[in-house]
Design a protein that fits this description.
It is a single chain. This protein is an alpha+beta fold. The protein contains 13 helices and 46 strands. The strands form 10 sheets. Strands 1, 3, 4, 6, 9, 11 and 12 form a 7-stranded antiparallel β-sheet that branches. The protein binds 2-acetamido-2-deoxy-beta-D-glucopyranose (3 copies). Residues 790-791, 794 line the site of one 2-acetamido-2-deoxy-beta-D-glucopyranose (NAG). Its cofactor is Co(2+).
Length: 825
Amino acid sequence: MKVSVKGFLYLLWARTAQAGCTTNLLIDNYANYANNLNSLGQWTSDDGTTTNFVADAANKKITFTTTASSYFYTTFACEKSTTDQYTAITFPMKGPAGATFTIELQTSSSCSTTAYKSYFTTLTGITGVTQTYTIPLSSFSGANLNAIDSIVFESFSINGAWEIGQTQLVSANIKSSSGGSTVSSTRISSRTSSIITSSVKSSTSSTATSSTSSGGKSSTSVLLSASTGKSTTTTSNTVSRSLSTTRSSSAPAGQCTSLLIDDFASQSRLTFLFYNAMLQPSSDDGTMAPVAGRVDTSTSVLVANNHVTLTSASGGSSYWYSMFGCLKATNIYGGIGLTIKAPKGTTMGIELQTSAACSSNNPTLNDLMSTDLGWTFDGTEQFYTIPFSKFSGIDTDHLIAVLFSSISNVVTFGPMAFYCGSTGTAYPVPTTVPVVEPTGTVPATTGPSAFVIDTFGNADTNNLGFWHGGDDTTTYKLSGNKMTINMKGNSDLSWYTQVSNGCSDFTANDNSYLHIAYTGSNAFTVALQQHNPTCNPNINPFPYTWDSVEASRYSNTAKTDLYVPLSHFNINRTLTVGFALKGFYTTTSTVFSLIEIVKTVPTGFLVPSKLTTAPLIFACTRPNSFAFAIDDGDPQYAQRIVSSVAAAGIHVTFFTVGAALLDTSTNLTNVYKGMLAAGHQVAYHSYTHPPMEGLPTLAAIDWELNNDIAAVSSTLGITSTYFRPPFGTEGARIRQRLAAAIPGAKFVEWSVDVQDWLWALSSTPENQITNFQSDVNKGGNLVVMHYLYNTTVSYLPQFIAIAKSTGKQMMRVDQCLEDPNAPPL
Ligand SMILES: *[C@@H]1O[C@H](CO)[C@@H](O)[C@H](O)[C@H]1NC(C)=O
Ligand SMILES: *[C@@H]1O[C@H](CO)[C@@H](O)[C@H](O)[C@H]1NC(C)=O
Ligand SMILES: *[C@@H]1O[C@H](CO)[C@@H](O)[C@H](O)[C@H]1NC(C)=O
């Protein structure tokens, strides 16, 4: 009998996420605001006209308080948006409910003239929550869109607190070609078609739409009054405040700061979602050598400690690229710099792709060899530059991508950034403050009972005669009354030893301790599992839940024994099933020799205090309830999900990945705003979708949680207390960090799995329906599915019909868990 009921959701997103092409132009994320520079390296300011002005780089927004004459502006080095095919300006904004404000666009008759005219659009419909405005440039009737000088936010009708998020120009030029032409080892040109194969991150609106708004309340359409409240031509005297710097085509000396391309902060951002730090595509398109012995990724593009290591496949066809949107570097950045560690004699090709049309479809390729740049290597990490001046005739107004190819050795890159001036310095590796866990201790107790559970003498049963075994028989080995486990870093695998065939009342052992004797790594979780209320393994979910503690916190300093008070397993211990060893975040083996219950701990062993774990939820608790909980998928299917759910007249919960939400090309922010407005729940699903428990450090876990919280807040204007773990991966560390980040947070798994990851692309996709029906028949009432595949999306109405036929009431996860903060049914 196996205890585990969940499957793995292997690389769901990744299958279709091969590097999308997004060519929106980031105007400002406020990272350089301290220097009064926007992300284009151009001047931006409020000229002191607001109060409490804060540039919040972490959340990519500015906040300020307005008075009667407040304004804020950002400038361009004369943007040719018609030529570059930008059709709209987009930004999230928050202001006092009922207020209006005006966007002023300043344009010249040509880029060689300094006089300009202003055009105005007034925006209404402000609700008090963050909403994304997308304003077609065509609404600035009469403006010369091929010579944009600046954008001004002004005429705030209500004085109070305002927020402007990341501003971008929206590209019309998202034509995704189906790609993957053969890669030539000599000419780099053929590689570029694979850069733009995309299905996930496609579809930026080519016609700008005004977005709908709202943070979970009623839907109010944001009225885009394209009518110009003011005269459409005003000459420079009324807008002289921004003139002084508008026309300077480069940042004033000393005011440029380097622009990060990637700091390799996350394996999953780079090789699962295929994003760099600019949230632009970055990938090797699977051309690098596959790596043996890593289960978290099948690529040899390996991220660690803010560096990426690339191992080329033999044959010379490997490459790796990172894209920038369509970046204007002229008179701002001198080149791209990065640190590289490579053996002596290493060479590689360096290609800069440009496109006057800001398109990645058929870019101009500018190629040099590392030797042309004078790069030599000696096995140590050093700073190298890719000066644009070395590429003769390169169009630095429209930089699309950097691509490395023909890499002759294993190389490791450090943070990569555009540098100012002509020489550049290495981009600083971000400093990470290690998370320090509480070290408090609690008094030792004396328990009533002691007995041996497992000495690993028997293949399938423990000393109590009950089943023991694991998810994957290749990951553990019993021999000579010892068991060696090495999950090779796969934090989703477990090994179990049971104390009952049904329910065991373990409360008789309260105040006793679980003792495990081991050697080797203690980077894993120990869990105590609880049966379902009927003690029937044929009812879903089984197990019903479990609680988790970190082996390392309960170890002695010699790393030979660990002792856990049974009361630290916060489950209903009258329904105990058994123990699980799980959440291994290591590739080092652990050898177990004894699992037992003891009455006391050795003298001198300090019992650590229990850290709060977010409760692990597989089932709805409200009588007669049923919840669809749908995880992020392929944006192209989002609208079909929206309409199926609407047609069924039900409310559901969506778990969303932060990085994809911030990527405006996915349109997911607008999709989820619509879903919130329609009464659905939206909650967290991590920032880049890694197996959270498998991350190497607590700081890495926190980075995922905090960035997701920030992304959901800045795009949707909401917070949540619900989290669904990517792949369902669970362990003590993620549950503790979640509880620390979000007090009262709930860790939501599932009891109905359509197994889309297994069947959707198979020859029998209808097995998704069979599986759904089967889990529902067993009493499952909390769904996992993704809108990643056409078949899954097509079956949603049938899934809903099956669920409804149980007679249960369909609702959001918070409602089905009887959350007092959930909206009424
Ligand atoms: C983006 O999503 C919104 C809300 O669902 C939808 O109205 C709009 O059509 C979408 N835009 C595109 C380009 O798909
Ligand atoms: C634990 O489970 C038992 C048996 O189902 C039940 O009677 C009891 O109320 C539960 N205790 C709690 C605290 O839920
Ligand atoms: C998606 O699935 C539906 C129903 O199975 C089918 O009719 C349709 O042709 C499919 N579309 C694509 C693009 O495969």
